[in-house]
Structure to design on (486 residues):
């Protein structure tokens, strides 16, 4: 396909010397090979990473709690992932991509002072008499997805993160440790704390509604 | 193990993340201590309910396209960078002839445009061929395509029911074989229903199970020959495939859950069908 096009240009350009033709030839030929290699890389990147688009969006949305920010972060994360794709040799594409989504999300959060990284669960405010809410009553209310969402959104970002990775993605402690960049031993204690906080938070909301 | 230790390890035990020895120790304690056993059961039920009720945010329509076009821009930019890096050094040797330089410079933009167009044409023609699978990989590709299509086209099930006694008779009447159907809800893989599919030039049964917010398609058709008990695991395009064969059937489980989850699925499916 390249040859006829090249010939056409050569035949049109009668009034320049031979070396100029060589310049053209080099300019034409080299990018073609590079581009084909790049297209191949892009195709394999997309085949490996696009299946995890929902997982990426889910994590970003839970971390950022904002639809537009989440979409921007996911798009940016895919671009970053593509740029460092040559460094990916593992088999766990989802965990690798989620690590990048997580880091991109945190970068935006740090930039966005509006989203306070240090927001932690306000023990005082929520230390209502949720002890009076029985486990059965709690279980009954949990069917309410909106209630669970509101309670999750109240938690600190590191708790939301670990709950999403475990409950929604079903990742192992090892994978979570890699993504959240914490020691594997910390995953267990943080997850237990996150679940405890979520329970408290749910109980408090149910108590308030009553 | 005392109550305090058991409480501390409860979450890891629930998540199946303890080593076998510690798991056995906590099981022993739960058998002996009614209070901890009750607390564990309540906690497990609550955690599972919370997981089920937590919304999963899927990527909105259009995001995939936006990502793909930004990746293509990146690729195009890279080739621009590499061309503009090469051109000046090639032209510098000719700077005595301004005319040649001028012409050459104009030419480089034409060449660049032509190169991009050509690369695009070649890539679009070549890309499907580069990904051309070998004969043995064709089935895996077909299986993934069926799995993806079932999720995409809102056509997950032909018969939607968690009741194996509804799904099985329906499939039996539509197929020339009677695939085993079991609900694995108590093992964390509820049956969503069944579907007819077409693979390897024959109609096959597709059983649809759920794992948290993910789906598992289990394709079943009679085996032709070969020994039972072969297990084969493949990871392709970010999907997990597990293949096994029993005395009557070929099984292919396809999903985007983790490999461990899919192996667990295979195990409970085998356990439950062996009992029937």
């Amino acid at each position: 396909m390249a040859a006829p096009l090249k010939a056409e240009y050569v035949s049109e350009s009668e009034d320049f010397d031979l070396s100029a033709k060589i310049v053209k030839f080099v300019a034409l030929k080299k990018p073609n090979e590079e581009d084909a290699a790049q297209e191949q890389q892009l195709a394999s990147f997309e085949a490996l990473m696009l299946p995890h688009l929902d997982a990426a969006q889910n994590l970003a949305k839970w971390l950022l709690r904002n639809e537009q920010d989440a979409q921007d972060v996911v798009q940016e994360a895919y671009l970053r992932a593509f740029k460092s794709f040559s460094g990916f040799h593992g088999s766990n594409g989802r965990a690798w991509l989620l690590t990048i989504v997580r880091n991109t999300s945190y970068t935006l959060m740090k930039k966005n002072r509006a989203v306070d990284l240090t927001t932690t669960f306000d023990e005082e405010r929520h230390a209502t008499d949720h002890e009076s809410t029985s486990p059965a009553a709690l279980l009954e209310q949990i069917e309410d997805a909106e209630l669970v969402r509101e309670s999750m959104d109240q938690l600190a970002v590191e708790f939301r993160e670990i709950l999403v990775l475990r409950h929604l993605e079903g990742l192992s402690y090892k994978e979570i440790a890699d993504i959240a960049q914490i020691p594997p031993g910390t995953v267990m204690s943080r997850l237990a704390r996150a679940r405890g906080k979520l329970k408290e938070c749910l109980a408090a909301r149910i108590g308030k509604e009553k | 193990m005392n109550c305090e230790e058991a409480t501390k390890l409860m979450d890891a035990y629930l998540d199946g993340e303890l080593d076998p020895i510690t798991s056995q120790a906590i099981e022993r304690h739960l058998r002996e201590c009614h209070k901890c056993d009750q607390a564990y059961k309540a906690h497990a039920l609550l955690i599972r309910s919370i997981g089920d009720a937590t919304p999963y945010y899927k990527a909105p329509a259009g995001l995939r396209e936006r990502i793909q076009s930004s990746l293509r821009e990146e690729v195009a930019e890279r080739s621009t960078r590499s061309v503009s890096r090469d051109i000046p050094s090639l032209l510098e040797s000719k700077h005595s002839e301004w005319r040649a330089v001028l012409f050459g410079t104009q030419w480089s933009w034409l060449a660049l445009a032509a190169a991009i167009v050509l690369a695009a044409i070649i890539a679009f023609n070549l890309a499907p061929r580069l990904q051309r699978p070998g004969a043995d990989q064709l089935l895996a590709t077909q299986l993934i395509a069926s799995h993806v299509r079932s999720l995409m086209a809102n056509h997950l099930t032909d018969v939607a029911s968690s009741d194996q006694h509804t799904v099985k008779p329906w499939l039996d009447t539509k197929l020339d074989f009677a695939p085993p159907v079991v609900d694995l809800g108590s093992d964390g893989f509820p049956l969503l229903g069944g579907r007819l599919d077409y693979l390897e030039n024959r109609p096959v049964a597709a059983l649809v199970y759920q794992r948290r917010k993910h789906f598992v398609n289990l394709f079943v058709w009679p085996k032709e020959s070969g020994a039972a008990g072969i297990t084969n695991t493949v990871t392709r395009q970010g999907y997990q495939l597990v293949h096994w064969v029993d005395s009557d059937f070929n099984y292919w489980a396809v999903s985007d859950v983790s490999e461990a989850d899919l192996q667990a699925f295979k195990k409970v499916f085998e356990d439950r069908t062996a009992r029937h």
Q: What stands out?
A: Residues 89-104, 129-133 of chain B have pLDDT under 50 and may be disordered.
